[in-house]
Every structure is written in structure tokens, then in C-alpha cells.
Design a protein that fits this description.
With 346 residues, the protein is of the alpha/beta class. 38% of the residues lie in helices and 19% in strands. The protein has three domains: 43 residues, no CATH class; 129 residues, Response regulator (Rossmann fold, 3-Layer(aba) Sandwich); 137 residues, Response regulator (Rossmann fold), CATH 3.40.50.
Amino acid sequence: MTLADVAAASGVSVTTASLVLTGRARELRISTEAERRVRSTAQQLGYRRGSLTAGPRAGRSQTIGFVSDTVASSGWAGDMVKGAVDAAYRHGFMLFVGESGGDPLVERTLVDTMRERRVDGVVFASTHTRAAAVPDVLYDGPAVLLNATPATSAAVPSVLPDEVQAGRSAARVLVEAGHDRDIHLIGAGPGMCDIPSHGIAAADRLLGLREVFTAAGAEVAGARWCPKWTPEHGFEATAALLRTHRPKALVCLNDRLAFGAYQALAEAGLSVPHDVSVIGFEDHPIASWMRPRLATVALPHYELGAWAVRVLVDLVVRRGRGARAPMIHRVPMPVREGGSVAAPRE
């Protein structure tokens, strides 16, 4: 007997049934009638929350739950799921996927339902790197955060893109091309307080950029903060810069900003890379359509999904045995070469 069975028999959603049976019906203003119906149905059907997972298991189910804030509407999320599916298959597991839309109540219900279905562990994924409020039901068994860090000091392993190394790689591309001055940042920086409020990736990219530029004696002449990393803001920031200065190189904190920067440079009669070199981050699909093709440091979404499953399978297989696994796993971000960086012209 599962939560889904109770919800179906009560004529309510799984989320509503979960809220009633976890004592949150009044808090979320669920009607008294719906609450009564769910509790009565649960009693009649003999449902007990967590009853499938409370006792010792006879063995593993060889299944993994994958809960993501976005699946259907994002190609990147699809790549993460594909990596997770392939890795699960290689290890003899099946993957169950659920999409929450970022709704905490749906996240909790999905994890709760997957636990009831006896999954051996759960991957809790975010499309964009963020600090996540981890549902408490995630602690009922092995779990891994993918592209997210716990908002509290929760002891859950995280699999993250290596954004610091990505910053180092982007800086090296420019330094090795001969750029050592008139380098400007578009999107954030140069200070750690000059980043978007959600900017985990921005802070790490800036850290790596600063490390390599400082070691090489390269001058970061300025930076333009952007409230959103969109083509419009990239255009506006670059156009404002060009009204007072002509840079030799632009480091755009993501590829959509770089797309906007390309347009502003073209309107100013400047060409990429002959007048201004440009490098971005993420390897967004738009990067391959820019002319010249944008040099960028890629987010390895497929590899992230596969890595998260490998970490989780390791937790499942050696559960309760041996040394603790690392809490942070960083996945390398490769450089995608393009024609947007060249030696500076004097």
C-alpha cells in the first residue's frame, strides 16, 4: 500500500495526501473535508507512512530515484538525466525520474513516494548550481545532491561542476593568446560582492580567473555587473563599456552574455577576434551558432549525471561499511575551442 494508492482512493493529488498525512493540512489550508477523507482512506487501506522502508530489507531493489527541478523544458537537464540513465544501466540499476518544477512540496512528495517504492537511493538534482533546501525525507536513505549544495550543514554528498578550474582555464586561454592588459569582465566582478545573489558559479569562476591573471601579471581593467545573465544585459553592459573604453578582451561569465556582447561590438564596428577577443562559459547551444564560434568552457551535464549515479551506487553498495566518501565531488569542465580568441592587435 503506497501514498499514491491513498491519494487515488481519496480523490486527491499525491501532494495533498502527503501534506495531510505529515500533519501540514491546516498550514497549507487544505479543506477539512479533504483532510478527513484522506485520513479515513489511509486507515481503511491500512496505510502507514514509511511502512515500506521502516523494517530491514531483504535486498536491494536495484532502482534509483532521480528528482530534478527541470526535465522536460531544458536540454541541459535532459543531458544530465541521460548521463544518469546510462550510468545506472552500466551498474545494473533502473532510474525513476520525477520533475518538481522547483516546488518544495512536490520535491518532498516525489522523494517520499520514491522511498516508499523502495528505491535504493535518490539523486536530488538542480539544472543550475544553487544552494538547495534539502527535503528532510531525503535523509531516510542514501542520497546525492547533483549541481547543488545543501543550504544547511546537511551531510549529503554533492556532485558539482569544477567552476574554479573553469575560471582558470578561461584565463589561460587569453593569457596564452598574449592578453595581459585591457581585459574586462562582463556579468560580474571583480569583487566577490559584485556577483548575483545566487551566484555560486560566478564566485567560483571569478576565483579561478583572478588566480591565473594574477600569477601571469595580467591586468583586469574593469568589470560590468549584470543583474541577469541574458543577451540583453550582455549587450547593455558591453555597449556601456564601449562608450568610454575599447577593450582588448572580454570574459563573459556565460555564453548568453557573450551573445549580447557580440551584438554590441558589431554595432560599434568592431570585429571578433581581430579587434576584441571574447570567451564565455557553459557551452550553451547558442555558442555554436555565433560567428565566429565562441570559445567557451563547457558545463559537462552528461558527465555530471553519470558521476552522481556512480557516487550514489558506491554509497548503496558499501552502505554502513568502510571509510566515508568525499562530501564534494567536482567534475572537470572542458574548454570548447572556437574562433573568438586571437592575439591582441597593437
